[in-house]
């Protein structure tokens, strides 16, 4: 049984930020740190005091983390980035609010004396003497101290204070992992101070010393324990009076902590087998558990439930069958063809998640080059005559300003070129589409055609496919390429408008150019020839997509399974240092790396374009190393130069590492390996929350007024899956209770609002 912790983080926007540039503006971005380890960096929003990010992240981390902090920074091209302010949330605060934080939080000034990190290893003893007792404090070592100097290290020493006396260790130069092994003694007197304070400092020759953190001990408790030794987390100096919040602006956040106690795999097998049996039986199942789950799932958590169910069935090889069952359930309650898959049902949400998990690389191949071209050209594009700003366009030649008609015509040409390129790329990609995605679309096409067989509904099966492919996958990716990992930065205002108009055109093609879509925005008329041509291309593409035989798909799946799919790929810069001394030079070499679950390889040229930041690479490396039984618990972050380690100055090359490895902090992404036990636990937790409703459904079906648990043994009715589900939930509840750690108790939904 293992405890898993994760953070859902949504960084929405900032407002009223102070100006940090001479232009009276700022270029803000956010850095998120968990216990001072940077894990997330948002894109920079240029020249604004009210930035919008809208970025979401899921972070998996150790249950023992202490805090998560959000730093708003101002990016500078020529100097070090400025810190605007921060918001800090402790783990204890998040744990007491199951729905987390949602709202605006004031940014506070970053106080250097509060920016502490790391741990210190101490041994404390109370030694009895002939005349008096003495307090002995051995300062052994420290690790992961904050870097206070420009060289990325510190020059740490320790002060030990007791009863007005102070003693100091020696200074260890240029190290964040110092070792002292020095011992100090103080005489214990009756009525003397009952507090021992151990402070870590960074020594500076010219300026004042920097505070690195402290640990405070109760001497009375030490007398009772006689001896205590261990690693102690350094704490900030909170003795100073809290300064009032300055005018640093606010940050809108959503942060939710989720703790799950995951049982061994065998405990979840009855639940998984029951759900899998329901999916295999489809609409023939007498229990219709999938339908019951949909009916008892609220709108606010439907996306989470859909994603979890999809991953669970992906792990069982039943994703296509699960989606097919949802298609049939939705078709069964849909009477009007024009309303099909237009709601946020479990089928729609599950299909959205499925495309992101199974089709993201395909999306990058089809859409990536077009998005890159839009970003690189930065052309002014506008089709709405009421929004054209001629002054923003420039001159057409010899300093003659362009007319509005010329702007509209040039914009239409640009959009027709982008739309045509996208449709051509898509129409050629039928065999590049992942086999499981093709099979799912083929099943969807077939089910819709069976439900709406008349000639007047001949376009409905095509629209059913495009409602997911175009409206819920390609169009959202065009409008927000950063959120689909197509670009590392958000688009500026001009590029955003181009992307929005392109996405509208793709939606019109996906709607098969219906009169309703044309009438909505008549100024899109200049694109109609390309849209009509695109409809024909798209129908031809879908026809080929759903016509590929299952045998071909199986052959392709076998061929693809021979190679491990990439976890992460993209360019990295390798730093090379040449020469020694003050005239040394350095250079960077760019190589394209590819990381799979089996190997890390590189080449001089990329096979595909996907830029990844350092934290994403670290996250991917940790994921592929998670099952490595030989993974080190500690390492040396420095190098062994001359006769000692540069990080901790130890002289034994084989000495254990001075810093513990951080192998458990990872970012959840669309290509993550499946975690079968966690997905099953999340389904169990959801079902536990709606158990009362399920019992009421069971009672209404005639199971008796009490609707107590129904055993799955010889006396159980095999034709009553709901009764079996209730018994499975009871068994899992007992399994959690039998473990000393227990399962986190269900609490009423509460949310803490942060208001300005």
Automatic annotation (TrEMBL):
Presence of keyword Signal: no
GO BP terms: intracellular signal transduction
GO MF term set: GTPase activator activity; zinc ion binding
Spans annotated as Disordered: 697-756
SUPFAM superfamilies in the cross-refs: C2 domain (Calcium/lipid-binding domain, CaLB), GTPase activation domain, GAP
Protein name per Swiss-Prot or TrEMBL: Ras GTPase-activating protein 4 isoform X2
Gene for this chain: RASA4
Record keywords, A-Z: GTPase activation, Metal-binding, Repeat, Zinc, Zinc-finger
PROSITE patterns associated with the record: C2, RAS_GTPASE_ACTIV_1, RAS_GTPASE_ACTIV_2, ZF_BTK
Alphabetized Pfam families for the sequence: BTK (PF00779), C2 (PF00168), RasGAP (PF00616)
Ras-GAP domain location: 301-511
Keyword Zinc-finger: yes
Occurrences of domain C2 (ranges): 1-105, 116-232
Entry superkingdom: Eukaryota
Species the sequence originates in: Lipotes vexillifer
InterPro entries: C2_dom (IPR000008), C2_domain_sf (IPR035892), PH-like_dom_sf (IPR011993), Ras_GTPase (IPR039360), RasGAP_CS (IPR023152), RasGAP_dom (IPR001936), Rho_GTPase_activation_prot (IPR008936), Znf_Btk_motif (IPR001562)
Family matches, as PANTHER family: RAS GTPASE-ACTIVATING PROTEIN 4-RELATED, RAS GTPASE-ACTIVATING PROTEINS
């Amino acid at each position: 049984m293992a405890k898993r912790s994760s953070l859902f983080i949504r960084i929405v926007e900032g407002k009223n930020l102070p100006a940090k540039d001479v232009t009276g503006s700022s270029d803000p971005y956010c850095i998120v740190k968990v216990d001072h380890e940077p894990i997330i960096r948002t894109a920079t929003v240029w020249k604004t005091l009210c930035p919008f990010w809208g970025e979401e992240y899921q972070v998996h981390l150790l249950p023992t983390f202490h805090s998560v902090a959000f730093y708003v920074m101002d990016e500078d091209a020529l100097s070090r980035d400025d810190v605007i302010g921060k918001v800090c949330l402790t783990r204890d605060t998040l744990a007491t609010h199951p729905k987390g934080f949602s709202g605006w939080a004031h940014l506070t000034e970053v106080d250097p004396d509060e920016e502490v990190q790391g741990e210190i290893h101490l041994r404390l003893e109370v030694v009895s003497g002939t005349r008096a007792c003495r307090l002995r404090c051995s300062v052994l070592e420290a690790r992961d101290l904050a870097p206070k100097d420009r060289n990325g290290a510190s020059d740490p020493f320790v002060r030990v204070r007791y009863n007005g006396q102070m003693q100091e260790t020696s200074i260890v130069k240029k190290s964040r992992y110092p070792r002292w092994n020095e011992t100090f003694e103080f005489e214990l007197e009756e009525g003397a101070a009952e507090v021992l304070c151990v402070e870590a400092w960074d020594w500076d020759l010219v300026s004042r010393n920097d505070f690195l953190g402290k640990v405070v001990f109760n001497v009375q408790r030490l007398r009772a324990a006689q001896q205590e030794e261990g690693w102690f987390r350094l704490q900030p100096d909170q003795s100073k009076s809290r300064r009032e919040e300055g005018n640093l602006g606010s940050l809108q956040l959503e942060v939710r902590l989720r703790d799950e106690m995951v049982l061994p795999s065998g405990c979840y097998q009855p639940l998984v087998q029951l759900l899998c049996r329901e999916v295999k039986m489809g609409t023939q199942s007498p229990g219709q558990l999938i339908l019951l789950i949909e009916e008892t799932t609220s709108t606010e958590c439907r996306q989470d439930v859909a994603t979890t169910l999809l991953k669970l069935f992906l792990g069982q090889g039943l994703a296509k069958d699960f989606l097919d069952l949802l298609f049939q359930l939705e078709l069964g309650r849909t009477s009007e063809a024009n309303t099909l898959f237009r709601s946020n049902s479990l089928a729609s949400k599950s299909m959205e998640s499925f495309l992101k998990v199974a089709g993201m690389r395909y999306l990058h191949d089809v859409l990536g080059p077009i998005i890159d071209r839009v970003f690189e050209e930065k052309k002014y594009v506008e089709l709405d005559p009421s929004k054209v700003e001629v002054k923003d366009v420039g001159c057409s030649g010899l300093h003659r300003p362009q007319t509005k008609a010329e702007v509209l015509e040039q914009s239409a040409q640009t959009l027709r070129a982008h739309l045509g390129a996208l449709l051509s790329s898509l129409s050629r990609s039928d065999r590049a589409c992942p086999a499981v995605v093709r099979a799912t679309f083929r099943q969807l096409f077939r089910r819709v055609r069976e439900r709406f067989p008349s000639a007047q509904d001949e376009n409905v099966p095509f629209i059913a496919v495009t409602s997911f492919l175009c409206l819920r996958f390609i169009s959202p990716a065009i409008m927000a390429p950063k959120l689909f990992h197509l670009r590392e930065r958000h688009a500026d205002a001009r590029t955003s408008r181009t992307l929005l108009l392109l996405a509208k055109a793709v939606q019109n093609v996906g709607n098969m150019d219906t009169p309703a879509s044309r009438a909505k925005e008549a100024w899109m008329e200049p694109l109609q020839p390309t849209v009509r041509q695109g409809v024909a291309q798209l129908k031809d593409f879908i026809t080929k997509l759903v016509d590929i035989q299952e045998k071909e798909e199986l052959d392709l799946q076998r061929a693809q399974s021979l190679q491990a799919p990439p976890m992460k790929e993209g360019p990295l810069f390798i730093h090379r240092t040449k020469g020694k001394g003050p005239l040394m030079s350095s250079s960077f070499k760019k190589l394209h790396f590819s990381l799979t679950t089996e190997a890390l390889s590189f080449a001089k040229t990329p096979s595909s374009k996907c830029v990844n930041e350092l934290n994403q690479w670290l996250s991917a490396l940790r994921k592929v190393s998670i099952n490595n039984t030989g993974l080190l618990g500690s390492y040396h972050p420095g190098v062994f130069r001359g006769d000692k380690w540069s990080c901790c100055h130890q002289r034994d090359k084989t000495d254990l590492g001075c810093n513990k490895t951080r192998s458990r902090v990872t970012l959840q992404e669309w290509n993550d390996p499946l975690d079968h036990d966690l997905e099953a636990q999340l389904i169990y937790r959801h079902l536990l929350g709606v158990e009362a409703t399920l019992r009421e459904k069971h009672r209404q079906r005639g199971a008796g007024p009490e609707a107590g648990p129904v055993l799955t043994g010889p006396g159980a009715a095999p034709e009553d899956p709901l009764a079996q589900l209730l018994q499975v939930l009871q068994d899992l509840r007992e399994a959690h209770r039998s473990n000393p750690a227990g399962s986190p108790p269900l609490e009423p939904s509460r949310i803490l609002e942060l208001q300005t």
